[in-house]
Write a structure and sequence with these properties.
The chain is mainly alpha-helical. The protein has 12 helices and 3 strands, in the order E-H-E-E-H-H-H-H-H-H-H-H-H-H-H.
């Protein structure tokens, strides 16, 4: 017979404790209760005494590296039903992440304009140019404007779904400024790298998407208590998709360099953020009720 052990006001705390209990052989799972209410549920009451002891120790020192190690080793996220974060796509939640929503709106608007016959104008003002030409004209927006160009509905939907799911997660947890910086830097690095390798005829948000994948992936490993994560099977799928792009067996041409540079820039960004903000959100890991 299962029983709720404790509720937290942060999902990350509930998941960390769940992983810690599982690592000690105590079957438990995370349960979403309501907004800002996250529970840890025991599967069997026979373990309740030991579970209470471990929970009390967790509350006293939630930043112990042991809890992060347990989360990584146990892989609690991967064993739960895979949650791609589709709940973040609800209009009410997107209103709380305005920069994520804004980028999505611009992408859709540019695609609609392209479909209505304005591709020549889009190409004239949005395509990247050689760096010396950009410097001469001071049209620096061209370093990021290729992000907003998509050449098919499938291309747009694929990139937009990942952007909304991952971008909203970062903006909710770490704020507008962090997502904005990741977006700008990964855009510049991935677009310039793709320009250098294959020329200016490319577009799409996928370089930034892979940066967000790398950022969320590494931050979930380095700072699991922050509650930013991506299920391991999903990470594996996206990495395999990256390799397939280099194999050149698909019916579409992929900006492989932008994907790779974006991924590495996101990983590096996560490492930097983890070092600059070691206590992010930790102060909010407090239970909503006593055991």
């Amino acid at each position: 017979m299962s029983q709720e052990l404790i509720q937290f006001n942060q999902e990350s705390a509930a998941r960390l404790l769940t992983s810690h209990l599982n690592a000690h052989g105590i079957p438990a799972h995370y349960k979403w209760v309501a907004s800002e209410r996250h529970a840890v549920v025991l599967h069997d009451l026979v373990h309740v005494k030991r579970a209470v002891e471990l929970t009390e120790a967790f509350i006293e020192n939630p930043t112990s590296p042991q809890y992060q190690q347990d989360a990584w080793l146990v892989g609690e996220q991967a064993r739960q039903p895979v949650d791609l974060g589709l709940g973040h796509l609800q209009p009410a939640k997107l209103l709380k992440t305005p920069f994520t929503a804004l980028v999505g709106i611009v992408c859709v608007s540019v695609f609609v304009a392209t479909m209505l016959g304005f591709f020549a104008g889009i190409q004239q003002w949005f395509f990247i140019q050689p760096l010396h030409a950009i410097a001469e004209s001071n049209q620096w927006w061209r370093l990021i404007s290729p992000d907003f160009i998509h050449f098919s509905a499938l291309h747009l939907v694929f990139n937009l779904l990942w952007w909304l799911m991952l971008g909203s997660q970062i903006e909710r947890r770490l704020g507008f400024s962090t997502l904005f910086i990741v977006f700008i830097l990964s855009s510049v690095f991935s677009n310039v790298a793709q320009l250098w390798v294959s020329g200016a005829n490319f577009g799409g948000l996928s370089g930034v998407v892979y940066a967000l994948v790398g950022f969320v992936w590494w931050l979930g490993w380095l700072r699991p208590q922050w509650g930013i994560n991506l299920p391991k099977p999903v990470i594996g799928f996206l990495l395999v998709w990256l390799v397939i792009g280099y194999a050149d067996v698909l019916w579409i041409s992929m900006a492989n360099t932008a994907h790779t540079v974006g991924l590495f820039s996101g990983c590096i960004g996560a490492f930097i953020v983890a070092q600059l903000k070691p206590q992010q959100r930790v102060s909010e890991i407090t239970p909503d009720k006593d055991i």
